[in-house]
Amino acid sequence: MSTRDIVLIALFAALMAALGAFPPLMIPAIAVPVTAQSMGPMLAGGILGAKRGALSMLLFVVLVAAGLPLLSGGRGGLAIFAGPTAGFIFGWIVAAFATGLVVERFWAKLTFVTAFLAAAAGGIVLLYAIGIPWISLVGGVPLATAATGSAAFIPGDLIKAGLAAAAIVMVRRAYPMIRQEDRWRTAPSDDLD
């Protein structure tokens, strides 16, 4: 892994922490807060690619587990991972990887639509597929109830996917000469360009 890869991974872990600075919006009927952080995996995977995006989310999760108050609302520590939202937190790693895979596949012909679909597939569909069963298991609620309650978050997540897609496409336009092999290379290098 190059120095550049390490810097980008750390940068996107820091971006996740910055997204946590936005105060969570609590919906009274549901115990899960609406946060800006769910957009982080979409951005990380879509901009960094599958491997680096997932590693940035893994780094963020490790920092939260170490006790840093990086989650929205200033939360952190191991106790978070025993709660009903932990499935979504663990799911961020998988969501970033999946989003990155789709974006990598379509990088040469990336449009807003394909970037949006990648962000929605990884950051909504896959994330919910991990988070909702966790809510059901830990919260002791039927899966259908957990899914119905989570449906209230879909409109906001679609907006986040749109914002992430716009950022992904802007990065694609800013670096049109970068080939996919250069963008997600894994050869060791210490360059920072």
Automatic annotation (TrEMBL):
Transcription recorded as keyword: no
Instruction: Give the UniProt keywords, A-Z.
Output: Cell membrane, Membrane, Transmembrane, Transmembrane helix, Transport
What broad class describes the main subcellular location of this protein? membrane
Question: Which chain regions cross the lipid bilayer?
Answer: 52-71, 78-100, 106-127, 158-175
Tell me the InterPro entries matching this sequence. Answer: BioY
Q: Which domain of life is it from?
A: Bacteria
Query: Which Pfam family is an annotated match for this chain, by its short name?
Result: BioY
Task: List where in the cell it is found.
Answer: Cell membrane
Keyword set includes Zinc-finger: no
Q: Which PANTHER family match?
A: BIOTIN TRANSPORTER BIOY, BIOTIN TRANSPORTER BIOY-RELATED
Which protein family is it in?
Belongs to the BioY family.
> This protein is called what?
Biotin transporter
Which organism is this entry from? Jiella sonneratiae
